Amino acid sequence: MTDSQTNPLPPLNIVVLAGGESAEREISLQSGETVSQVLSSRGHQVKTVDPSLVDLDEYDWSNCDVVFIALHGTYGEDGTIQSTLDRLGVPYSGCDAATSKLAFSKSASKERFIQHNVSTPSYVLIHESDNAQRIEQHARSMGYPLVVKPDAQGSSLGVSIVQTPEELPQALARCFHYDSFGILESAIKGTEWTVSVVDGQTLPLIQIQTPHEFFDYEAKYHEDSTQYLFEFELPTNVIQSIIKTGVNACEALGTTGIVRVDLLLDRFQQPWVLEVNTIPGFTDHSLVPKAAAKAGIDFGELCERALAECLTKAAQKPHN
Fold first, then answer.
1. Residue 124: predicted pLDDT
2. Active-site annotation holds for 24
3. Which tens digit of pLDDT belongs to each residue from 264-299?
4. Catalytic-residue membership of 286
5. Is 277 annotated in some ligand binding site?
């Protein structure tokens, strides 16, 4: 991203939505607190509202210019809160309800990736009511190792890499703890990468290195040994291929605002998209702020960009 400076926003009345009742509540509260502090420091009037404690239909929105959504996981990323705010006529950061719902479902987003020729690991959609033998049959036909994931969940919660058939039942139990639907996904052995996209422009690419088997919840939030690299010993065309695949994934889903694409690079230097996060973490140690800082964009400017984009869209909407 070459344009590292934008005009600061005039003072606004901002509501930051954080918390909620999802399994990612703890991370959401951290994101919300960080965003609230930095927006307040830039001269805005900021209120943090937790939808699990406040009825948004009863809330007085008359003095709110815009909402910054820092709700991760179910309700925040699946289109529910976006639909509520649309009904209330309140502008908000990030993707619209339909795109959020699409991106939050791994199976639905994979189908869209396949339609748009975006490389993504092959998968089978499963349900907790499925016959165990049928799931085992799917797993055998895919081959081990494979990955078991909840269909709609974030922060790698409920995700397992399954090396043998004996490990499958425990992985399924973990998956179905978080969602009634899950996916069996072909395991791609390779390095982990993330592409951050802000209003269609990419931030510097990050390679993630962790001593864990994969970039799981502990590695994301509690592990000091996780490394985030901006320098790579890779040919330029491979780096460009990772970035282009990330951008193509965003275009396939129709995302707007600030999103993060998680990918794997296999031993043949082929990138594979795992998922697109429409509300990435916004703590000071999160990946998108790290990439923004590398591009010379401070945290406050990043947050304002998220709001400027949605305010522009809101101003362009026809008024009845």
1. 96
2. yes
3. 999 999 999 999 999 998 987 789 999 999 999 999
4. yes
5. yes
Asked if pLDDT for residue 222 goes beyond 90, the answer is: no
Instruction: Please say whether the beta carbons of 19 and 318 come within 8 A.
Output: no
**Which has the closest alpha carbon to 155: 34, 25, 41?**
25
* pLDDT confidence band for 212 (50 / 70 / 90): low
Eight-state DSSP code of residue 166: G
Which of 24, 77, 301, 309 is labelled catalytic? 24
CATH of region 123-186: 3.30.1490.20
**Read out DSSP for 139-163?**
HHHH-SSEEEEESS--TTTT-EEE-
Tokens of 304: 């304002």
pTM over 0.85: yes
Would you say 39 and 17 are in contact if contact means Cβ atoms under 8 Å apart?
no
Work out the average pLDDT over 290-318: 88
State yes or no: 262 annotated in a binding site. yes
Mean pLDDT within 213-222? 49
Domain ranges for the chain:
102-119+188-294, 123-186
Nearest to residue 14, comparing CAs of 29, 38, 78? 38
User: Which one of 31, 100, 119, 155 is the catalytic residue?
Assistant: 155
Taking alpha carbons only, the member of 20, 15, 81 closest to residue 53 is 20
- For 13, the token pair is 């009345």
CB 194 within 8 A of CB 208: yes
Is the pLDDT at 260 greater than 90? The verdict is: yes
250 and 276 Cβ atoms separated by less than 8 Å: yes
Marked catalytic residue, from 28, 160, 286, 304: 286
Q: Two tokens at 226?
A: 């996780």
102-119+188-294 has which fold? D-amino Acid Aminotransferase; Chain A, domain 1 (3.30.470)
User: Would you mind telling me the total number of residues written for the chain in this entry?
Assistant: 320
User: Residue 205 CA to chain centroid, in angstroms?
Assistant: 16
Show the tokens assigned to 11: 């003072």
Helix (H) or strand (E) holding 216: none
Element (H, E) at 46: strand 45-49
Q: Is 167 a catalytic residue?
A: no
